[in-house]
Amino acid sequence: xxDPGNIGLINTxxxxxxxxxxxxxxxxxxxxxxxxGYTPASGTATNANTTTYNPNAYQVTPEQTVAGxxxxxxxxxxxxxxxxxxxxxxxxxxx
Length: 95
Description:
Blueprint: H1 66-73, H2 79-93
């Protein structure tokens, strides 16, 4: 049976066996950024710059909503309601 390899948690980048934070492993071709450590106590947050964002105002009309579309479909005088009324009258006349 083949060795499944390291299936537990890892503290280095995949494929890097022994790397010191901030360095690349010697003897292997570079495969991206070196492994770097992170110390939460020394981490700092900065505010995002939002002064350059200018949103475009957008108004939603009633025809762009489901409620508005249904209101137009079942409104008095709409083609669908006229057809339903005509079908109902035909059924009443058959009796």
